[in-house]
Amino acid sequence: MSGPSSAATGPAPAAASSTAHESLPKAARRQAGALARALVTPSYPATPLFAQSPRRRLRRVPYGVAMVLTAILVPSTAQVLSHDYGVGGGVATLLGIAQTTPLLLSVTRPLQAWWIVFLADLVCAFVVLGTADHLQNRVWPWLPGGIIGYLFLLLALALREPRRTLVAVWLVTGAAGLALGMAFPDKSNGSNVIMFVLSGVVLLVAGALRERGDAQRRLAEQETISEAERARRTLLEERARIARELHDVVAHHMSVITVQADSAPYRIGGLPSDAEREFSTIAATARESLAEMRRLLGVLRSEETRGERAPQPGLGQVPQLVEATVRAGIPTTLTVADDVAGLEPLPQAVGLSAYRIVQEALANVVRHAPGAATRVAISAEDRSALTLLVVNGPPDSAPTKPLETSGTGHGLIGMVERVRLVGGMLDTGPLPDGGFRVAARLPLVDLEETDPS
């Protein structure tokens, strides 16, 4: 359970400087005031013990324990007070109820229940003093039934309240026992010392277990958040990488538009002045768009990213990629259907995406399935789509360190983003024999024609 929600949120340096030079009496008074406030400030909200447990049966355990203890301790405490300490039957029953029924309240509000039980135990100790003849060789000031209920109440308190509250409760318990023992030394027989030790052990052990559980839960939550953030960062990095690569493709087209628009009046004679101005406007707009793209690329490029000067690869570089994979120790075969040659020239975005998908698939084989026989197949589907298939068998040996590092390192995430870029489809998954399959379909028609919107 969490501690009180009214924790101080002031600036830490200022608080540290204000308490660094205070005197010892002032520091003692400040700590005593903090302990006193902890005794009257229960945790919020008043959720039941084990309320966060996913098991319904475990959430009911505190209620069952409280009901069983109450049913046992009420009659037994009343009988002990009546027969062993000479207290009247009615008073004994009332004291038994006051000392044990607050255990039902301790499931949700243990601090309030502690106040009731603590005061009831003190009243019981003074009531028993009136029967001095019955105190010979009897436990006092804490009675046996009261000790049992009190310890279970402290257990519930330690599972709910913060450390400062537990220390305050322990000190108050010890101070009350010490005061009664000093006030009536001939009546006390050491139960105050036993109560002080047992209460400290219960609070210490249960509090430590509660804090350990809280720490583990926070760690699990942080790991979940970190994993989600890591996946999100990987996705953003891959999208930025794709955007940087596509910049070269789009920049080339924009440059061609600019050159054609600027040279149109010289290549085509007899153009009217309105047409020349239109071509001039097209060229200026293309140059402005190209400048905006370069500024956008500067935003996407991180400080450690260097500009790529090599031309962007395409489908024609896949054979070299397969050869490099074979040199890395992976027996790889490449099959290119005859109808693929008739598709040239491919759209640059499609060719680049095809190359990167094959590159990532082969890189994953090298990393995770060393020595596995791999097959790469490229075909055309009715001249409307390019189909890629990379299939590898089970690894010949356990994966060690990567032998190939030419991929982006983002694996399936990069493939998904590249297929999504051109409006295609991707199908990946393990095979029954232990291998893996990557199949991609990249449409060759314009995205505008396939966009359902």
TrEMBL record:
GO terms for cellular component: membrane. Residues 1-20 have a biased composition (Low complexity). Residues 353-444 form the Histidine kinase/HSP90-like ATPase domain. It catalyses: ATP + protein L-histidine = ADP + protein N-phospho-L-histidine. Gene3D superfamilies: 1.20.5.1930, Histidine kinase-like ATPase, C-terminal domain (3.30.565.10). The keyword Acetylation does not apply. Residues 218-245 form a coiled coil. Its EC number is 2.7.13.3. Residues 1-23 are annotated as: Disordered. It comes from the Bacteria. PANTHER family: NITRATE/NITRITE SENSOR PROTEIN NARX-RELATED (PTHR24421), NITRATE_NITRITE SENSOR PROTEIN NARQ (PTHR24421:SF10). This is histidine kinase.
